[in-house]
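Why does residue order matter? Because the sequence determines the fold. Keep that principle in mind as you read this record.
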Amino acid sequence: MLKRKLIYILIILTALPVTNGKAQADLRTREFYGRVSEKGKGIAGVPVTDGINIVITNEKGEYKLLSNGTSEYIYITVPSGYKIPIENKVPCFFKKIEKSDKKKQKIDFELQKSSVDDNKHTFIVWADPQVNFMDELSFVERAASDVSELIRDDYSDRPVYGIICGDIIHDTGKEPRLYEPTKDIVRQMNIPFFFAVGNHDINLDVRSDNYAKELYKKHFGPTYYSFNRGKIHYVVLDDVFYAGNSFYYIGYLPEKQLNWLEQDLAFVPEGSTVVVSMHIPSYSVEARRGEYSKEPPTKVLQNRQSLYKILKPYNVHIFSGHEHQNENYILADNIFEHNHAAICGLFWQAPWCHDGTASGYGVYEFDGDNVKWYFKTIGKNKNYQFNLYPRGASPEKPDAITANVWNYDSSWKIYWYENNVKMGEMERFTGYDPNIRDYVKENGKNFRYNWISVKQTDHLFFAIPKDKEARIKVEVIDRFGNSYIEELK
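Structure:
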């Protein structure tokens, strides 16, 4: 395996870029060179890329990269054990390429060693803040404060990082000014927070996807990149492909990006844990039900099988957003997708998403190659993992007690008790969460958006009590053996 990796790396270092299957020597018109160093000492083995080709630094920390002249950035994969550089309130692992006729350009990177071991670290995942009005910034501040409190209480002994999986603001065309105050709030958490581009972060008045992310890049840099923390290799992808027709986009990874990903992963040992973050999920509830024809191209990654094939040698967790719901998809023995509920709930109009998941975020605890996770509701204790409803709350099951277990996957157990007697597991069903259904019905006429609606979810469970007057409680046990108990009052 090592021999194959070395051969592949040698090919990457020497090969010409390929366009339509043919080497195009005349496209490699610019040379970039420089060093990656720490206090004057070169750092070996750091990947350096222009978004097309990747090379690695030599034993002196030096690199030379031939580029085709169309790239916008030279950037690095920040190695484990080094701090994530922060500039202009965002991780800065990149340098903008000067517009120049120079055939050669020197670009250096200076890193700083971390004083804390990052082998054990925590990763926070936000999806879809989607800020559209200035008065919504206070809600983002509340979410940021919640993260800060969690770090203070539970993770002060380890490094913490985060990412927003797209739709940072609601509409770049109308409110690009909301990027800066949103970045200010995110920076208040005082941890490196990365970003992925979402469909609401793209420019709509351009002719093609090639130009659709200009505003995003102005604020956050490259739309796809990687970095390492401890034993974990993190990759951020741009799977929002703008079709150039009004607001139409699809979930899609262009060949340029797939080719870059193959090169990026060539430096990662097979069997390693890889985390891939992107906005549009690779899978869907419809696919899980076998209803593939019902998958809208705007809702799911169209060429997901190509991505899965590239990821096959690794243990992979995919972090996504976009759908404003919480879903877990076990896609293969080695691929687990976490589709995260929106931090904004129902577009800041309700404290739940349209599937009844409370407004919150994902928390991932990494220790070496191992990871555990949970969903953290804003303003609630981390043990708050489901909602329990009395008989009659769910029209689909009028005689039953029901529970919405938003971070459920097939390894979880949902037990119910009648008068402290364990009655067995609750049954799963598809329906509407009572909280969000009733809230929209009662308050929808006052919402800022008249198109808001609720959505059925598969993470509902029911049981029919024998005694209508009995004391009822439900115990939920997650895949890690943690027990959560709620009792009907």
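The CA atoms of residues 63 and 461 lie 56 Å apart.
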